[in-house]
């Protein structure tokens, strides 16, 4: 696990997740090897109850202000309440393939 990934996981604990997955997807993008710039976050929390997706994302961005200001370029967020997570059969969408930079087809 990368140090930035661990930092993100630690900071997100403040939102009391019942499920948290932080995946470093940097290797799927046009970045140098061993980069820590692109992350996918799937998080389930009771604190998201009654909030629109935009407000949930704002909460996550606020908690992750430091990593976002220090090297994290992209953050794919999938935020759910426990009920929503159950209705999704506890799965988040797959990330799309990167077609930017040198990865263009």
Defining key terms:
105 residues; alpha+beta
Task: Report what the structure shows.
The structure is a single chain. By secondary structure, this protein is α+β, with helices and mostly antiparallel strands. The protein has one domain: BolA-like (GMP Synthetase, Chain A, domain 3, 2-Layer Sandwich). It has helices spanning 3-12, 53-63, 65-69, 82-87; strands at residues 17-24, 38-45, 74-80. Strands 1-2-3 form a three-stranded mixed β-sheet. It starts with a helix and ends in an 18-residue tail after the last helix. The model has no long low-confidence stretch (mean pLDDT 86).
Topology:
Layout: H1 3-12, E1 17-24, E2 38-45, H2 53-63, H3 65-69, E3 74-80, H4 82-87
Parallel strand pairs: 2-3
Antiparallel strand pairs: 1-2
